[in-house]
Design brief:
By secondary structure, the chain is α+β, with helices and mostly antiparallel strands. The chain has 1 helix and 5 strands; from the N terminus they run ββαβββ. A hairpin with a 5-residue loop joins β4 (54-58) and β5 (64-69).
C-alpha cells in the first residue's frame, strides 16, 4: 500500500541501511503490521549474499531475515 525509500551502504558483504522511510498511508491494521515488520527487518540488515538469482539478507547473528528473487 505504501511506497518505500532510503539508502544503503555496502562494504564487502556488509550492508547498512540508511534510514528507510515509507509514505505512511493508512492501509488497515493487517497490512500496517506487515509493513511494520518488513521495515524492521530492513533496519536489521547486516550482511548479504547472492545465491543464484536470489538476494539473501542476514541480521548481525547471521540469521536469514529476507530473501528476494530476481525478476
Amino acid at each position: 500500500c505504501n511506497t518505500y525509500s532510503g539508502g544503503y551502504t555496502v562494504v564487502g558483504n556488509s550492508l547498512t541501511d540508511g534510514n528507510v522511510s515509507s509514505s505512511m498511508a493508512s492501509c488497515g491494521d493487517e497490512i500496517g503490521q506487515q509493513e511494520s515488520l518488513y521495515l524492521s527487518l530492513l533496519r536489521a540488515s547486516a550482511t548479504f549474499e547472492i545465491q543464484g538469482n536470489q538476494l539473501v539478507i542476514r541480521n548481525v547473528n547471521g540469521q536469514e531475515i529476507l530473501r528476494y528473487n530476481r525478476m
